[in-house]
């Protein structure tokens, strides 16, 4: 149940961020790009983990996943201020134009 709530929350936040940051004419291209990158990452990680679990066991796979999770969290923390500041600037400019 908690996983479902988190998944829905992340999707809503991501869509709101896209709507705020990405210009409307590029929205479809950006979404397609990130979806294709996500699919390539899934395929690559499935292949790597299948090979890794066969060679080293599941423990090493969990360590790699923990590292990827920490790397993603650091990326979010590092870019969120920039994205929110940039989005606030775009909103201010759009408000001034009216």
| Main beta-sheet strand count, sense and barrel state | none
N- and C-termini, Cα separation: 44 Å
List the helices and strands in order: HHH
Can you tell me the residue ranges where pLDDT is under 50 for at least 5 consecutive residues? Answer: none
**Which percent band covers the strand fraction?**
under 5%
Give the SSE map.
Elements: H1 2-21, H2 27-56, H3 58-97
Give a brief rundown of this model.
This protein is mostly helical and 98 residues long.
Plain-language structure description:
With 98 residues, this protein is an all-alpha fold. It has 3 helices and no strands. Helix 2 runs antiparallel to helix 3.
Task: Summarize this structure as a short list of keywords or feature phrases.
about 100 residues, mainly alpha, elongated
